[in-house]
Design a protein that fits this description.
The protein is an alpha+beta fold. It has a single domain, classed as Aminopeptidase, CATH 3.40.630. Helices cover about 30% and strands about 30% of the residues. It is built from five helices and eight strands, in the order ββααβββαβαββα. Helix 3 packs antiparallel against helix 5.
């Protein structure tokens, strides 16, 4: 299946739905949980910027570079964040999981763990990818720790990789999971979900 195909990925605690403009109001509410500003090292949109962020992701999908999802909490029914397949390389069957953010109230709840399990399962078992990447800011220690808990391995650091809107240079840490590593990663994610459920 092409990595750009929109489809619903559903688990016990989270439902990933193809991102649409109908998700705007819920996502604005989720973004408000960050207060005046999210962490400086990540790209959570301000509530007033959510509609434009959705349109950017939909434009990237139309260009074949991204497949965006809205993250819905199965228990409450609320849309509480976004995630994507990005930097899609269909020819080489590679993809990055990124541009992910969740409302603070949804963090450390099992939602992110199950979302990553759904996305990785789809990438490896539905799309036959040869590598799934994760990238994050060098200073985003929370994200780095979460990626490492998934079982992704570090590939290296892209120094001075990009320039932020305020002109600050970003070092990007790159991780990946390969097909032969996927069974162990899948087992670890399932075990973490089972621990959340207890």
């Amino acid at each position: 299946m092409p990595l750009t195909t929109p489809l619903i990925l559903a688990g016990d605690v989270v439902r990933l739905e193809p991102l649409r403009t109908k998700h705007t109001s819920d996502l604005e509410r989720a973004a408000r949980e960050f207060g005046d500003a999210g962490p400086w090292y990540t790209s959570v949109p301000a509530p007033a910027e959510v509609a434009a962020a959705i349109q950017r992701r939909l434009s990237e999908h139309a260009a074949g570079r991204m497949n965006p999802w809205a993250v819905r909490d199965a228990a409450s029914g609320r849309t509480i964040g976004m995630t994507t397949f990005c930097n899609i390389d269909e020819h080489n069957r590679r993809v990055e999981i990124g541009y992910t953010w969740l409302a603070p109230s949804a963090q450390r709840s099992g939602i992110n763990t199950e979302a990553k399990l759904l996305l990785l399962t789809h990438a490896f078992e539905g799309c036959d990818t040869i590598a799934v990447e994760f990238r994050t800011h060098w200073h985003n220690r929370q994200s780095r720790a979460a990626i490492e808990r998934l079982g992704a391995r570090p590939d290296g650091v892209l120094r001075n990789h990009s320039i932020s809107a305020d002109g600050v240079l970003r070092d990007t840490v790159v991780y990946s999971v390969l097909p032969h590593e996927w069974p162990a990663v899948r087992t670890g994610l399932r075990a973490r979900l089972a621990a959340h459920a207890r």
